[in-house]
Amino acid sequence: MDKNIVLKTEHIDKYFYDPVEFQVLKNIAFEVEKGEFLTLVGKSGSGKSTLLYILSTMDRDYKGNLIIDNELITGKSVDELATIRNEKIGFVFQFHYLLAEFTCLKNVMIPALKLGKHSPKEIEERAYEKLKMLDMQDQALKPANKLSGGQQQRIAIARALINDPLIIMGDEPTGNLDSKNTDIVFDIFKDLTRNFGQTIIAVTHDDEFAQKSDRTIEMKDGTIIGSHTN
Ligand SMILES: Nc1ncnc2c1ncn2[C@@H]1O[C@H](COP(=O)(O)OP(=O)(O)OP(=O)(O)O)[C@@H](O)[C@H]1O
């Protein structure tokens, strides 16, 4: 098998017990290849966010297996998961959660400072590199809250890239953007997958965004009902 699989789920089931027992995910099994731009779609309540939470190693309470980078993630401790997450996963959310008073540069540096693998000077250089990739280097020293929504999302993408993650997970990454900025974010994701071998898994309600991605997994009532190569 010469496919380069970066993430795999095997028969993932998940239940919620409050207020009554309810199976939110049923037998979720799929693989994601390196460099793939994958979108997860489905009606509200179909289980997309619950699944993304598991894929991003933030939820440990499920049945089945999650494998990332050929390593079994299921069963690891909270601390082990935090390390794996910092090293291998970048996050882009609907709301960017930038620290408003901090400069853009500092915001981008934070996940690398937390990881503590490089000196602050090296991290600053890397942060400038990422800002440059996103054409945001001129904004580096501005406080994050002085930028437009679209610009702030680009800073959030630079922040997600700072530790050179294996996978970027997006939870409605364009949910708060107008169509022009949605297109910009889409083009950035496409460029990252095409030219930098980045893998992206994004939950979206935007059908057009999904149809332009490489592959769309469709969920309904906690199951995968389709996987379409676009
Ligand atoms: N903590 C929880 N306890 C109980 N039920 C929950 C919990 N979180 C989510 N659910 C239920 O699980 C189902 C799936 O929710 P989830 O948020 O994963 O759906 P979704 O597809 O991401 O929806 P949306 O598109 O609206 O974000 C829903 O019926 C929701 O009400």
Brief characterization of the structure:
Keywords: ATP-binding, Hydrolase, Lipoprotein, Nucleotide-binding, Translocase, Transport. This protein is about 35% helix and about 30% strand.
Low-confidence stretches: none
> Which percent bin holds the helix content?
25-40%
Number of domains: 1
**Largest sheet at a glance?**
6 strands, mixed
CATH superfamily label: P-loop containing nucleotide triphosphate hydrolases
Strand tally, please? Answer: 10
CATH topology: Rossmann fold
Strand fraction? 25-35%
How many alpha or pi helices? 7
Biggest sheet, strands in spatial order? 6-7-8-3-9-10
What is the CATH architecture assignment?
3-Layer(aba) Sandwich
Compute the gyration radius: what is it? 18 Å
At the first level of CATH, the class is: Alpha Beta
Chain-averaged pLDDT: 94
Which class do the helix and strand fractions yield? Answer: alpha/beta
The ligands bound in this entry are: adenosine-5'-triphosphate
Present the secondary structure layout.
Blueprint: E1 5-16, E2 22-33, E3 37-42, H1 48-55, E4 63-68, E5 71-72, H2 78-88, E6 89-93, H3 104-115, H4 120-133, H5 149-161, E7 167-171, H6 179-196, E8 199-203, H7 207-212, E9 215-220, E10 223-229
Parallel strand pairs: 3-8, 3-9, 6-7, 7-8
Antiparallel strand pairs: 1-2, 1-4, 4-5, 9-10
Adenosine-5'-triphosphate binds near residues 16, 49 and 50.
